[in-house]
Amino acid sequence: MSFEPAQTPLLLLEGLTKAYPGVVANDQVGFSIAPGEIHALLGENGAGKSTLVKTIYGLVKPDAGRMELHGEAYMPAKPSEARRRGVAMVFQHFSLFEALDVAENIALGMEDPPPRRDLSERIRSVSEEYGLPLDPSRRVGDLSVGERQRVEIIRCLLQNPKLLIMDEPTSVLTPQEVDMLFTTLRTLSAEGTAILYISHKLDEIRSLCDAATVLRHGKVVGDCIPRETSARAMAELMVGATLQTPARAAGTRGEVLLEARGLSLPSERQFGTALKSIQMQVRSGEILGIGGVAGNGQDELLDVLSGESRAPAGTLFFEGQDIAALGPRQRRAMGLLTAPEERLGHAAAPDMSLVENAMLTGDPRMSLVRNGMLDWPKTREFAKKIIADFDVRTPGSHVAARALSGGNLQKFVIGREVLQNPRALVVNQPTWGVDAAAAAAIRQALLDLAEQGTALIVISQDLEEILEIADNFAALNEGRLTEPRPAAGLSLEEIGLMMGGAHDMDTAHHAEA
Amino acid sequence: MIRLEKRPTPSRLWTALTPLVAVLATVIAGGLMFAALGKDPVEAIRTIFYDPLFNEQFASYSRPQLLVKAGPLILIAIGLSLGFKAGIWNIGAEGQYIMGAICGGGVGLALYPSESPLIFPLMVLAGALGGWAWAMIPAILKTKFNTNEILVSLLLVYVAEQLLASVSLGLLRSPDGGGFPGSRNFQHWDAAANVELFPGTGMHWGVVAAFIAVIGAYVLLARHMLGYQIRLTGAAPRAARFSGVNPTRLIVTCLGLSGALAGLAGMFEVSGPAGQLSIDFGSNYGFTAIIVAFLGRLHPVGILLAGLLMALTYIGGELAQFMLGLPAAAIQAFQGMLLFFLLAVDVLTNFRIRLIKSEVA
To answer: By the 8 A CB rule, do B53 and B62 touch?
Structure first.
């Protein structure tokens, strides 16, 4: 039933075990990848996918087990050794310097960079060969996220890898960019480069991958041929339980709660995106989904809604009241809550405990502060409620936020806002890096809020997610927001055009309609 | 090969242990230095740490000195630690200390020779205000023009020193001083004197204020919204803004508080142990307090202990100077080692050391 390569496998893993204090990240993991195979690695958060790929890439040394590359023993002590043996990796988070250009960034990652002219030439030839258009002399700060990913991929391809590891590569791409990436990956595969592909988007895995290995709690719990397995079956294999699709009752729309009228704001950050006359209305019980490629103003929009940056007077209203001048605490007190995308350092303080992080946004609405004095027992109760209700896996509420896995911290951050009974809630990437079961639970929680009459804005790069829960869809492109359109019946192609910034077409379309 | 591995959560054990390890390392390295200078290291260390408290000959003099020296250090360090925790770097406490002394002393001298019981409280108030106002200069420049508070506050120390010299020679010079520089002696004027509260202990109002500051800072950091905002800003500035902390207000508050406490320390010093404003009134308490704040891990109780330890090395250092003929520079180097080792050992709180055998691939 599983994909059995006839020839020697490119990479063979046997009995890989890695334990950290308190948790076994990998437990006797073993599988093999054939040359040219696109192999998916599936699993919930904390299933041990990262540890495994870090082992293959020489960042983690396993406690037990062995690996073979081309039939020879393989146990890289550091990434440079892995690269020398032909293993390359594209990380989920890019390590690029925005102020440098593409060629300079690529040169920085090389041990022995060739002269600039030769390097640019090689970048150009590789980018043409694999259909990854990229100009070596452009500054990375000016590139879109998709283009930045190409920099990382080309950086890997320059080493002629035999195995390319990709960690959640499509989470930041438009549908069109995903298509381009897949074409590239298929070309590579046809040339004999194997790809280890980590993703939680099961449909993508089904269309791209030849084989899949599923991890749960550090163990291999199954393998399958994705083309012949339904997304649902794979998800259930991953979670080890039956999944529930989020459902919502047809809620009634109430009055307009949150409204932006021609909101423009220059970005405070270098390489940030200025917001340009944002126009939107969100009603009670409505979910407005905002799509768009990362870096098109999502962070700035969230900041201006949370009150971190202040909008010009007369451009932002909550329940008809001008809130442009109000700070985050006052907005929370009114019932406008937000959850930013960046969990560590923005939504949560990494070195502070979960209790202290519950205080971070909790106090105006949960009255955790009396006469300036903090009510820690009450805050602890609140933190424990978040942990229990949102299934945050942690040894306790005293643990520092940075000790939690990304998905668990995300559950905590979303839970913290949802449990405050918001009048309006703005979330950016609510299920980013969260496993399928938890993502479904978070979406369900958002739908439940809408049903209770909360106005929601869901900013996400996961279009399936938006289409699944949103009533209306709008796209952000270079700081402009398209006019929201009903999500039902929108095709991926139309969405792609909206995200790509076809404003004129879009408005023309509306004028006709 | 030695590698540092980040701990998932800071080690509580090492947080408590690092100051002790640092002190131990300082003693060893300092002992080596003293030996290199041709002194008996054991005797030198004993003279610094043991004799000031327990030597029959000196202890009666030096024991009260412990509180006298530790009081201002702790008072200033507590104020500084609040800002440091939030990433606001007031390096000019020495200047605020001097300005507190000038303002507190000046207000008192303006009312000389009144014997009203209100004089001393008025001086306390003026001292705090003087330090506060001096700290407001870097605060306002930072919030309005985004200047660097480290530089501004530091340079203002030298301005304050010039002002001190000027008033000691001019405006506040004692008319009965026979033309010598320096103000009237507050210890000779009951209404303005910061007296020793219990004879033979060195306890004066400044020490009381320091203890109150320790308790106040502890409660502030553990229980109060402002303390939480300070810690949050230090831990994650962007999360702090998201939470609703107003950075401008926090900068002004932290610099103001540390300035006011440094001003208080200066005022208590001039009306107590120092006795008068003079050109050489500044005694680097403001700079040493920076070391005390870090040695105490920016924790109020830690600062209390670190202040006492620092005071001990001061007194013991002086003792070692005239008993053993150790150069003053050696004593300063010894104190410097303490901070150096603390910062070095500090790594262990957030990282653990892994020994990695180099392998052949």
So the answer is: yes
